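Convert to structure. Protein one:
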Amino acid sequence: MDVLEGARISWRNVREHKLRSTLTTLGVIIGVAAVITFVTLGASLQQDIVSTVAGGNAATMYVTAQTPGESQLPSLGGGSVVFTQHDVDQIRELRGVEVAAPESGIAASSVAYNNSSVGRQWITVSSPGYFRVRNLDFVSGRPFRLGEREVVLNRPATEMFADNLSVGETISFTRAANDEVVNATVVGVVAGQDEGTVLGIQGDGEQPRLYAPTDPYYERTVLSPNLRTRQLVYGRVLVTA
């Protein structure tokens, strides 16, 4: 059949059956519009869910060693204390790993500054790369250095005392385990995401936070099964891919 003849027959059928043609056209238009609408909504919803769960930092992973609970999410406080320094070094050497920062803490019975003190505090210990993994921006100062008696505070921690703390000031904290008093120099102040937000779960709001290097403050060790020597041991490793 000639193409032109086929087109004429089709047009004649359309004119002779206007209602049927109109309904067919409407069905096609509605169907296409519905598909486009649901695809757009689905993509937007997916992006929103990914952004919420990832907290704007999808490349960051919180590595723990424990049996997951019913929620299938790791504990915010970390798992069993099983990651030795050897384990951390091995993770850093994996292909695709940009930063691997161990995380643990020191319980302080008190923190003192300028003849005043505040009660029990938890001091997070890690490596200088911790601030990159956590996306913590420095308002002033710099990250601490391993091997130095230095600490970094967040903004609320600078207001713990009557006289606000600033970079260059010296504070002291008392270890809860043995009542040892340790001095440290404040070398930086950070502002950024709160420690209470992990894996998209909101915490109780921004609280005073103190960060210190593992060396020289952290002392918890365990016998490494790989090296057969005692090494520092951590409950969690933060990894940026």
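Protein two, convert as well:
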Amino acid sequence: FASDSSFLNPNFKMAHLVTAMEVPQHHISYCLSHYINKSLHQLKLESRMQWAAEALLDPKFNANTIDAIGNKAGYQSKSAFYKAFKEHHGITPQEYQQNNK
């Protein structure tokens, strides 16, 4: 999942998986809940947070602001990105960047 950047699209939904995989939605939902024990929303959040954390430390994103990285991670507002990042990582994106550089 993390190797595919589709989840970075702010409009990424179950319908995209259904189309790409050519599998009924209830099959995908069943597999996610029974084999991975996560919802699509949880997987999307984890994947975006992993991508954002890596991007914050990646030299190729040095020219990007933290807000721009949040936008590239699929968040349409600074506050939504900061809130999700802090809930997931326990610190703000800026603190994460400072602590890991």
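The chain has a mean pLDDT of 89. The CA atoms of residues 5 and 48 lie 9 Å apart.
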